[in-house]
Amino acid sequence: MTHDRVERGAIVSGIGMSRIGRKTGIPDAELTLDSTRAAIADAGISASDIDGIATIGDTPIALAAEQLGISTGWTSGSMGHYGLLTPVVDAFKAVGSGAARHVLVYRTVNMMGGEAIQERSDGTQMEVPPAMRDITRILTMHAYSAPNWLAMHLRRHMHLYGTTREQIGWLAINSRRNAALNPDAAYRDPITMDDYLSARMISDPFGLLDCDVPVDGSIAVVVSGAEHADACAHPVRVDAVGGSDGAGGWDQRPDYPKMASTDAAREMWDATDLRPADVDIAELYDGFTYLTMAWLEALGFCADGESGPFLEGGSRIALDGELPLNTYGGQLSAGRMHGYWVLHEACLQLRGAAGQRQVAGQPEVAVVSNGGGPIAGCMLLTR
Amino acid sequence: MTAIASRIIPPLDDDNREFWTGGVTGQLHMPFCAACGRWVFPPVLQCPDCLGVAAYAPLRGRGRVFTYTVDHYPFNPEVPVPYVIAIVELVEQDGLRFTTNIVNCPIEAVAIGMPVRVVFEQQGEVFVPLFEPDPDA
Q1: Between 20 and 30 A from A122 (CA), which of A8, A332, B4, B48?
Q2: Which residues of A touch B67 (CB under 8 A)?
């Protein structure tokens, strides 16, 4: 890891999102135009001030630039050490080192399914990240999708620690409870523990409500140099970041069922004086319930194996609990924006602008995480 | 046993070929580093610890279920559900494990710690290592 903490020279100056929903039929470029325009306006700058663009997924950088009428400048576009948030951290480092002043980062998804290796809309395949290079021998075993790979982690956790589905269900219930207060969330009707337990099995012990909701949408942020903070209405500061090289892949970690989130959390805490007790808001990746449990343990909000009891009853993680979790409804209920809605929500909450679901007491420190298996990235953001 | 549906097979190379084809002898094979006294998985012919040569050798083909999942969703419509995906840890070495399927066993009977033995499913030149309950354990 780098110890220069160049990312501290960055702020998130603007955020924006498109309409997000199930099977909207809206072309990805249009979603991207909506979110990027919104983020640029929110940052209080003009499109011509943007001198860098970073993304992964739908809508190529050249097209995003063309429809905003700008040149691309500095670019980044791969999944790396920080998982799906790699473009964001690359942008932090770019503005922190002076390589760019205002970087536009967006993430656009068109109902992306669970395939291990995605095809782009132009038919080309995304580069396989190093963490996924052992995936073909796992696909051999008819283990085609992430719920298969991750359900085995959860089963092992249940075996080692006595974790129950009734404990895990609180994650789904909490997400839906928060989504009810988020008009942009895909699913907003309340669910009960019975609903959770009786949902059809996908990959046992994962049922349907352990899995996130595919959506169409785009979320964008503008990352600016910290010198822009005074001119920005609502700067969100970057305190620390952490990532992982994914050693051990999907089934070889000696500390299984831990995942790369353990490495990323350690790297992040090593780069800051803040401690888990300082965190006011947790926006933790929940592509599947178990991933959030792994992040809770990795980040030190509870001890190894104790995420089940931590979740039980759902009060600790509620909006008025000691650790408000996935306050917008998470990917489980709001929708699968692949690590970008957590970032957007952390910024909203730190600004005090989350409306009905705003956490009381002016939260000052938020943790954001993304990824599962050998993919992980996390960051501490402050007001 | 007969293949129920064609499986995705990793591209074979010098490192992994014998892992995937060695089952033709009826035995599971992995590279072994004599200098370290360790089996090497994922299969590569250079020991990741000492960088010396690792050479393929047969294993007993016995292990225990380390963890598993029962797939109920037809991600591949050609594969009948439900079926069991598992990680099996081999008896030779702590942590020597890989993802596989448990076959020839009622789904309800699968449990973590269950003793299993290798059984191969042939697909062309490849013999895919799967596991079934070990009657001798």
Answers
A1: A332
A2: 152-153, 155-156, 159, 256-257
